[in-house]
Amino acid sequence: MTQHDHLPRNPGMALDMDWVMRAQANTSAIERRASTLPGRRSVKKDHQAAWLCKAISLIDLTTLSGDDSAGRVRRLCAKARQPVAPDILDALGMTGLTTGAVCVYHDMVATAVDALEGSGIPVAAVSTGFPAGLSPFHLRIAEIGESVAAGAEEIDIVISRRHVLTGNWKALYDEMAEMRAACGDAHVKAILATGELGTLRNVARASLVCMMAGADFIKTSTGKESVNATLPVTLTMIRAIRDFHDRTGIHIGYKPAGGISKAKDALVYLSMIKDELGDRWLQPDLFRFGASSLLGDIERQLEHHVTGSYSAGWRHAIG
């Protein structure tokens, strides 16, 4: 399946404050459910290898460091094209496996687009004053346009957390709608920075408002907060997605980001998506992992499946 096939984009809708204010989150129940998830699903051997290959196809392979260079980004793109050693893929009978996207700062978009030419792998750019989102608004909008012009097919924007913390849902809606418009044909992922929103109820309401304003994806975190993707936050956000789909028929994507570095954690997230949203969300047009080190651990697990031995992490470059 190619990126974004078959499903219409989220056209957005008018802000429905009644719906927003009715949104609640039973924190204790959500935390209880989340605490049971790692033990509820267990896949082994060939089934586990298949699920781990699926996880690779859903990774936004990411570098967002102040010392990023053209060379590093080109190596990352080479890894996105060939995420697992060919001999391991041959043993698994896998062909054509790539990551879901490559995610970089605006300054590296052109380099990534050039390095990925012909691969079909989209470039995602973090934007709008990432990670704090506190630069002047007109500059945040201009940054989106610059990244789209440079070839980014996906834009990961950050919301103004203060709108959520002060309950100014109209301001959040207007901001998100303008950012969505600035993206044009590029798909927009709204980063909620959930670790800074205070409560799961705020997470639920912010998720709904961003979807109403036209977000194609909602994303947990920038990866720069002290608390990033968690299972309770994920349950809250994907249930908001399910509610939105039930009410509108529109499919919204989900991206947990930050802190997901182990293959076993990726399997928990995938099982949660399957349980709560269904198989259609296990495709790269509706689910992504925002990760850098996750791929390396998955590759180690796949090599163990094939050879019976664990390799050193340094054998799996860039992962």
From TrEMBL:
Its EC number is 4.1.2.4. It catalyses: 2-deoxy-D-ribose 5-phosphate = D-glyceraldehyde 3-phosphate + acetaldehyde. Signal peptide: none annotated. InterPro entries: Aldolase_TIM (IPR013785), DeoC (IPR011343), DeoC/FbaB/LacD_aldolase (IPR002915). GO terms for cellular component: cytoplasm. The keyword Nucleotide-binding does not apply. GO terms for molecular function: deoxyribose-phosphate aldolase activity. It comes from the Bacteria. Keywords: Lyase, Schiff base. One of its GO terms (biological process) is deoxyribonucleotide catabolic process. It holds the Pfam family DeoC. Pathway: Carbohydrate degradation; 2-deoxy-D-ribose 1-phosphate degradation; D-glyceraldehyde 3-phosphate and acetaldehyde from 2-deoxy-alpha-D-ribose 1-phosphate: step 2/2. Belongs to the DeoC/FbaB aldolase family. DeoC type 2 subfamily. This is Deoxyribose-phosphate aldolase. The lineage of its organism: Bacteria, Pseudomonadati, Pseudomonadota, Alphaproteobacteria, Rhodobacterales.
